[in-house]
Amino acid sequence: MPHQEPLPFWLVNVPHDQWPAECPAFLKECGEKDKKIIGTPDAEHRNLPWDEVRELVRNDRVDLFHRKPSDLRRYRQYTHRLVKECGSIMNFIVNERLQWKTMVPRGKPFEFDEDIKILCNDWPYGIDASIVHLVVWTKFELDDDPVTGLSTAESQQEIEAYMKRKFGGRVEAENIVWFKNWKSLKSVHAVEHFHVMLYNADPEFVKEITNGDVPMAARVP
User: Fold this and answer.
1) Please, which residues have CB within 8 angstroms of residue 49's CB and are 6 or more apart in sequence?
2) Block means of pLDDT (10 residues each) for the chain, length 221 residues?
3) Domain segments of the chain: what residues?
């Protein structure tokens, strides 16, 4: 049986009749991590169950979250187009997703609801379908330690207090986690945000707190 060379990463998970002649522009600047993920067949991908999601967050290994290979490819294609059309991902987030006219907060962190918006994560990680992935966007900064790049103890306390007010009584403590990406992992740096994951959440509650938001991954081909 003749030896078959492995496919270039940019052809994996693409139907043969749709193979491009060369690496698409939106994949040409991929880092090695993304190349490895995109070059993995979807059939070899495993969505993370809730217990593993909780463990990664508890151990601060959020760097191990990643998207399903074909979803990451779609994400890169989509953001490449966004930059061309909107100038930057930040412009799209602020103007289209958040629809904020100003980024100046009205008050102190978590003091006013108008300084906060909860939306679905547009391109969620490869996690079990029973897990809802949300992003809490804020007009105010949440301090990071300049050495470690992780949230300071004070900002962690502020987020924890907000989480109890917003989600307490509606979601069991064991069915919710939050984390703030390391600076090196953030895809959107200019707008402060942190992630929330809910397990087996009431769809009506999710609809209520996101104002019926639908992630972009479910809107684009």
Assistant:
1) 128
2) 75 96 95 96 97 95 94 96 92 94 95 97 95 97 83 92 94 95 59 95 97 94 78
3) 47-66+105-216
